[in-house]
Specification:
The protein is α+β, with helices and mostly antiparallel strands. It contains three helices and five strands. Helix 1 runs antiparallel to helix 2. The chain is rod-shaped, with a radius of gyration of 45 Å. The model has no long low-confidence stretch (mean pLDDT 80).
């Protein structure tokens, strides 16, 4: 392209210097056309070079942005995978401390037949009768332990059974179903069943 521009420019200069007074109008017009053509091709050539340079700059910037984007996508993918693993791990952790909704808890069958939670802080966390019924309906009766996801924790106080001497359980005795010391705090825990949650 640059060689063509230089040839046109040389032709235009050569024609301009060779003009004689007795040249016809058509020859002068041809010389002027070559001169204008050479100027315009020079401008176009310069613009083309500038555009090519800009394109190269944009292409390099685009490549850098795409590389950065791919790195960010990979980072996001890795972070999402890590978050999923952490969520899964947190779902599968069994709580032995403070029981809260969505945590897992293990309840062991006691000699009287109640299910009491394994708890490192304090005892008196019992599995609700509804949860026991749900588990024993799906599995063999009286499993040694039950694992469930906590959906509700209800705080209660053990009361004295006024008819306990008569040997018959009155409705009031339901206020102390675990034979705790009167005034003791206890919790009734309702859980959702998990796969392989009883043994």
């Amino acid at each position: 392209m640059s060689a063509f521009v230089e040839s046109l420019r040389s032709l235009a200069l050569s024609l301009a210097s060779s003009i004689k007074k007795n040249e016809t109008d058509s020859t002068i017009q041809f010389q002027q056309c070559i001169k204008v053509l050479a100027e315009r091709v020079t401008i176009l050539s310069r613009q083309s070079a500038e555009l090519l340079e800009r394109y190269s700059t944009v292409q390099a910037a685009h490549g850098a942005v795409m590389k950065d984007l791919e790195e960010k996508k990979e980072l996001i993918k890795n972070l999402c995978s890590k978050l999923q693993l952490e969520k899964q791990a947190s779902k599968e952790k069994i709580s032995f401390g403070r029981f809260e909704v969505h945590e897992l808890a293990v309840f062991i069958r006691t000699p009287p037949g109640h299910y009491e939670a394994i708890n490192s802080n304090s005892s008196n966390y019992y599995l609700s009768e509804e949860s026991i019924a749900l588990f024993t309906e799906q599995h063999p009766p009286h499993p040694a332990y039950i694992i469930g996801q906590i959906v509700h924790v209800e705080r209660r106080i053990a009361h004295v059974d006024p008819d306990s001497s008569g040997g018959r359980r009155s409705p009031a005795s339901m206020l102390n179903p675990y034979n705790l010391t009167p005034g003791s705090e206890y919790f009734v825990v309702t859980v959702a069943m998990l796969p392989d949650a009883v043994r």
